Amino acid sequence: MSQDDIENSQLLEKCPVNEQECQWLHELASLRSENAELKLLVTTDTLTGLYNFRYFQENMGREMERTGRAGRPTSIIMIDIDFFKAINDEWGHEAGNQALKMAASAFKQAVRSSDVVCRYGGEEFVIILPQTTLPTAVGVAERVRLWLEQTRLDFEGDTIYLTASFGVGVYTKEKEMSLETFVDSVDQYLYQAKQQGRNQVCHADYSEVKSETSVSAEEKTALFEVQKKPE
User: Fold this and answer.
1) Most buried among 8, 52, 203, 226, by the most CB within 10 A?
2) Is there a catalytic annotation at residue 123?
């Protein structure tokens, strides 16, 4: 049962015991359910089922505010599917759509439950990693890269191989920059990955964020897990 269903059930239980129906409460419950569905629609990418750019902006904004208050770093992974235009040109747009769906599924399976996967636009994706240091985020990105590399798309008798380029960055309390500026800084590492041959992970030098990259015992365990190759 979803949270909305629980709330609606609790709402209906407040009906007077001597009345068989409480129409206004039923209508209110229905409105709340419709509002939840509408919110899901406006924050979800219709093709992949992932969160969309709008949700990324809202969620990342909240995480950056939380980092500013609590001091725990927030990392993001920016992803661009390699040679995506070539897929559309050779196999058509339906193949491109299927490739995006497959990539989205691979990303969701490869990340941790606390991470948030979004479609940034076109063939670009972004993953939010709350309370995550740069070394751990790089480990997650490498796991995602391997997972996608080992996934195959069968389309009309052909096999399509996908890889992606990754840029990873960490937002810390000391940075005090806007969301746009932070995303642009991480996008530079994504561009670097593509320039250096694609299918790789690029990120800031760990020494540049030394004070924020101390890894806790829990994060060391998580890093070990994400660096395992997918089955």
Assistant:
1) 203
2) yes
